[in-house]
Structure formats: structure tokens, C-alpha cells
Design brief:
Elements: H1 2-25, H2 38-57, E1 60-62, E2 65-67, H3 71-101, H4 105-124, H5 131-150, H6 156-199, H7 209-222, E3 227-233, H8 236-243, H9 245-262, E4 267-273, E5 276-281, H10 287-300, E6 304-305, E7 308-309, E8 314-320, H11 326-342, E9 348-350
Parallel strand pairs: 8-9
Antiparallel strand pairs: 1-2, 3-5, 3-8, 4-5, 6-7
Helix pairs in contact: 1-2, 1-6, 2-3, 3-4, 3-5, 4-5, 5-6, 8-9
Length: 351
């Protein structure tokens, strides 16, 4: 009995470790579900397959049966990644069993058992069930398949001393792993959401002031030549007063999209605050030409709000970095922007 509990504890630890690591590595594509991209579902199935192989290695034998908790990663793969995920997990499980024992009668019977499990995943995948209900169905079905496999093939004392604890540990461990998976997934998704809110401007989708200055500092520290544009929407207060603040928000969104489209790959653009944007360039060739193109593109673009065309222009203050602190580069660009605004707007000044 002690050996059984010890093996099951090792099994649960393996599943927990692999599941936690997998969800963390795949945190950018959460939630994982049967509608996720194929590569995501296959990756999750691969991770659960590795877990199943490790469980096979850390199993013990009763008569001619291997005892472990492989049903848990199979159920997780099916509930999260659907038929594709569980198909990959089944394939790795069979390969692992073959690598350990060779082509045995037990392995041949496993083809039928796992085949039934895969068929169940095809059927349940067509139903609109909550993931927890799906997982319960897979766990129960897997345990029933194991019961049929061992029924009449082991002595009663083995069934009482080994397989009854097996079913208890399967359901207890299975639900513990599922609860842990839900908690980790929720935590990672909330962390991603809060990180995004802390670094991305919600209105324009551009890096916010904090992230923009952080990236500017990185460029400054890199030692490469760089240039800074300080960009301001002309007469923005008048736009708000004329069309309303909702129109002003839409103007910021549309201007932000235009700047993102026009920004070279060797640079980035972010919202500095209010109607002001910063664009940092790591390629200082043709700086004036790019700045003038930004002004021209905004002037010639058609911006609308609720069917109304809103004419918009921008002013740009530009400055090149000459191995000096970024604050000085910003001060020059900001002074150049002021000159552009006082000189009639809708133009570029180099500082």
C-alpha cells in the first residue's frame, strides 16, 4: 500500500510540474481550447504526451498490468485541446510504452483502449459542454476502461489493495490537477491583461508613456545613432470643442493607426500623453524626408467620425541624437515642435 501511495504521489508531481511549465510557456496563447490554432493544440498534446511517458516510466506492475495515472494527462489533453491534442498524447503514450516494453499483448490491447478514448473525444467535441464537464466525462470514461481491462485478470486482494486506491487517487489527483490548471491559467491571463494595461495605451493600442520612455532609454543605451520625433495633433482642443470628445478619441485612434503604419521597422511610435506622440528611429538616414511624409500623409488622409469628415494635420519636431542624454534630445525636439506650431502648424522643424 505504501508503494502505491508513493508511486501515485510521484505521478501527481510529474503531472503538476509538466502542466505548470506548459501553461507558463504557452501563456501568450491562452486560453487553450479545441478552437485554438492547430500548433497550439498539438503543442499542448505533446506536453501531455511527455507527461504520460514519464508516468509510464514511474509506474509499477501488478500481474501483467502497469499502474500509473496516465488517464489524467489524456483527460487534460482531450478537455483542453480536443481530438488533435489527445491524438498527439495517445501517439506519444504508445511510443513510450513500446520503447519500454516492446510489442507486447498489453500494448496491443492499449491500441483498442486508447482508440475508444479518441473516438469519445471526437463525439464530445461536437457537443457544447463546459470544459469541466468534458474533463469529468473523460476521467470517468478512462477509469471505466481501466476497470474493464483489469476485471477478472487480477486476484481479489490485488484489486482491493491496489486498484481501489488507484481509482480514489485517479479522481482525487485528477480534480486537483484540473483545479491547479484553472488557477494557473486564470493567473497567467490576468497577469497578461494587467501587464498590457500597464504598458499599452488603451485608446490607441500604442505603447503608453511609461513603455515609450522605457524603449527610448533602451535605444539610448544601445549606442546606435537614433532620432526622435515629437508629434502633436494640430488644433486638437478646437476639434474636441467642435465635434465632441468622442470625436477627439476617434481622432487619436486614427492618427495613432496612421503613425503606426508609417513608422519604419527600425523604430517605434508611442503615445506620450494627450494629443502628443513620440516616434523613435534607429535609422537616421532620410529623417527629414520621413517627418515630412508623416505630415503629408496625415494631411491627405480622410478621417471620419459618424459619417463626418474631420480635417486633421500634425506638427513634428525632430532631433538627431549625438551621443548625449535622451533628455537633451527630447528638449531639442520639443523646442522644434513649438517652433512648428508657432510658425503655422502642419509642418516639420528640425532641432
Amino acid at each position: 500500500m505504501g508503494q502505491v501511495v508513493n508511486i501515485f504521489f510521484i505521478n501527481i508531481s510529474i503531472i503538476y510540474l509538466l502542466l505548470s511549465l506548459t501553461l507558463y510557456l504557452m501563456r501568450h496563447v491562452l486560453p487553450i481550447q479545441s478552437a485554438s490554432p492547430l500548433a497550439v493544440r498539438m503543442s499542448f498534446g505533446l506536453a501531455m504526451g511527455i507527461a504520460a511517458v514519464l508516468l509510464t516510466v514511474n509506474s509499477f506492475s501488478v500481474e501483467d498490468a502497469r499502474i500509473d495515472l496516465r488517464i489524467i494527462p489524456l483527460a487534460l489533453a482531450a478537455a483542453y485541446a480536443g481530438p488533435v491534442g489527445v491524438g498527439v498524447t495517445i501517439g506519444l503514450t504508445l511510443l513510450g510504452r513500446f520503447g519500454l516494453d516492446g510489442m507486447t499483448d498489453q500494448l496491443i490491447r492499449s491500441f483498442g483502449t486508447l482508440g475508444l478514448f479518441f473516438v469519445l473525444s471526437l463525439v464530445l467535441n461536437r457537443l457544447s459542454l463546459r470544459r469541466g464537464h468534458l474533463y469529468s466525462a473523460y476521467l470517468v470514461f478512462g477509469a471505466v476502461l481501466v476497470l474493464f481491462r483489469i476485471a477478472g485478470n487480477v486476484p481479489m486482494h490485488a484489486f482491493t489493495n491496489v486498484f481501489l486506491p488507484y481509482f480514489v487517487m485517479t479522481f482525487f489527483g485528477g480534480w486537483m490537477c484540473y483545479w491547479v490548471a484553472k488557477q494557473i491559467e486564470t493567473h497567467l491571463r490576468m497577469f497578461r491583461l494587467h501587464t498590457q494595461r500597464a504598458t499599452i495605451d488603451e485608446l490607441t493600442g500604442l505603447p503608453n508613456r511609461y513603455m515609450t520612455l522605457e524603449r527610448l532609454n533602451d535605444v539610448e543605451a544601445s549606442g546606435v545613432p537614433w532620432a526622435l520625433f515629437v508629434i502633436d495633433i494640430d488644433r486638437f482642443k478646437q476639434l474636441n470643442d467642435t465635434y465632441g470628445h468622442r470625436a477627439g478619441d476617434e481622432a487619436l485612434r486614427q492618427i495613432g493607426a496612421t503613425l503606426r503604419e508609417q513608422c519604419p521597422a527600425e523604430g517605434f511610435v508611442g503615445r506620450y500623453g494627450g494629443e502628443e506622440f513620440l516616434m523613435v528611429l534607429e535609422d537616421t538616414t532620410d529623417v527629414t524626408e520621413l517627418a515630412e511624409r508623416l505630415v503629408r500623409v496625415v494631411r491627405e488622409s480622410t478621417y471620419t467620425f459618424e459619417g463626418q469628415v474631420i480635417p486633421m494635420t500634425i506638427s513634428v519636431g525632430a532631433s538627431l541624437a549625438h551621443a548625449e542624454p535622451g533628455t537633451l534630445v527630447f528638449e531639442r525636439a520639443d523646442a522644434a515642435l513649438y517652433a512648428a506650431k508657432t510658425n503655422g502648424r502642419d509642418q516639420v522643424k528640425i532641432g
